[in-house]
Amino acid sequence: METNSITIVIPVYNEAESLIPLNDALQRVMSEMTIPWEAIFVDDGSMDESLAVLEKMASNDPHHIRVISFRRNFGQTAAIVAGIDHSQGDVIIFMDADLQNDPADIPMMLEKINQGYDVVSGWRVNRQDTFFTRKLPSQIANWLISTVTGVRLHDYGCTLKAYRREVLADFHLYGEMHRFIPAYAASVGAKIVEVPVHHHARRFGRAKYGLGRTLKVILDLFTVKFLMSYANKPIYLFGGAGVVLIAISILTLIALVLRRIWYEEHLIRSPLLQLSTMLFIIGVQSILMGFVAELLIRTYHESQHKPIYTIRKVINEKKPE
Predict the structure, then answer these.
(1) Which residues contact 213 (CB under 8 A, 6 or more apart)?
(2) Which of 300, 208, 229, 287 is nearest to 18 (CA)?
(3) Nearest Cα to 137, choosing from 221, 211, 217, 215?
């Protein structure tokens, strides 16, 4: 399970003042390790001098430093995906460019990877951020994500994480989905461990995210739950909802009939008749949507030869003759 090479992916957005100190700290840590490594800085459409600083860093160390420059700001998830797409290491580490993550934690995280874990997630135990605008919303989001996905982590929002390349192979990330990568990895059987990491107060600039980010997390969480629980069997979601609606419709109709028998109330005059009819129709439509979704997911898997399982390893595998 030894690591052969490392790629460190660092999204950058208006962090010109932080880049040189970050690179110096990264060089000090990695120079003490014998493993081959590279750092990919992804400039996410910065409006300051970040790109110029990155170009100088890359020219001074072309062996280790690589730079990807976006035409405009696409967001942190897009920057992480670009880093993964251009990476060569068999272990990929994500970290922020604002000096709040500490490169000194990298050796410890690699040690966990070498112990057999597929994902090592950083936990900012002593987080150096404001409570009401950063820490409290983060705590609420972490609780929601852990509850919905079933993958219990204290700090989904911590960028500092290490992954084996194979657990990232088939993920397609959009929006703000990068924070949910551990949940995706768990869905394919990855072994996950959470470790305390250092967290420093911001030295330069200001935070890029605020309270508005919490709403995006909640909305993305609906997508994650669907993809994790129902992506391969959507009929369970749509069909289940349809059956529940039809059952409510039938119970409502029975209640109407009983009221007609006992109290001689006319069915047509009651709004419950319209409600029962509407619920029945919506229930049937939901089941039909489930059938359509089943056909779509089967077409998706078969046309792209997507497997419905993942293998950690094969012992004494026989080679095809």
Answers:
(1) 137, 176
(2) 208
(3) 211
Task: Give the pairing of strands 119-123 and 192-196.
Answer: parallel
Q: Identify whether the C-beta of residue 46 lies closer than 8 Å to the C-beta of residue 77.
A: no
Mean pLDDT rounded to a whole number for the chain: 85
Alpha carbon distance 120, 296 (integer Å): 34
Strand partners, 37: 6
Three-class SS of residue 304? coil
User: DSSP label at 154?
Assistant: S
Q: Which amino acid is at 47?
A: M
pLDDT band (50, 70, 90) for residue 29: very high
Determine the Cα–Cα distance for residues 152 and 181; give it in Å rounded to an integer. Answer: 13
Give phi and psi for 251, each to the nearest 5.
Answer: -65, -40
Q: What is the mean pLDDT of residues 167-184?
A: 81
Whether 241 shows a pLDDT value over 80: the answer reads yes
Q: Which of 130, 112, 128 minimizes the C-alpha distance to 120?
A: 112
Q: Give the number of C-alpha atoms closer than 13 A to the C-alpha of residue 153, restricted to the C-beta side.
A: 29
From first CA to last CA, the distance across the chain in angstroms is 28
Of all helices (H) and strands (E), which one includes residue 6?
strand 6-12
Contact in structure between 191 and 118 (CB atoms under 8 Å): yes
C-alpha 203/C-alpha 98 separation (Å) is: 8
Helix, strand, coil percentages (3-state) for the chain, rounded to 5, are 50, 10, 40
Q: Is the pTM of this model over 0.70?
A: yes
In whole angstroms, what is the distance from residue 134 CA to residue 111 CA? Answer: 30
Beta strands (DSSP E) in 17-157 are 37-43, 65-69, 91-94, 119-123
State the amino acid at position 233 in one-letter form.
Answer: K
* Environment class of 261 (CB within 10 Å of its CB; exposed 0-12, middle 13-18, buried 19+): exposed
Nearest alpha-carbon partner for 141 in 108, 183, 103: 183
pLDDT digits 0-9 by tens, 305-321: 665 455 555 544 555 55
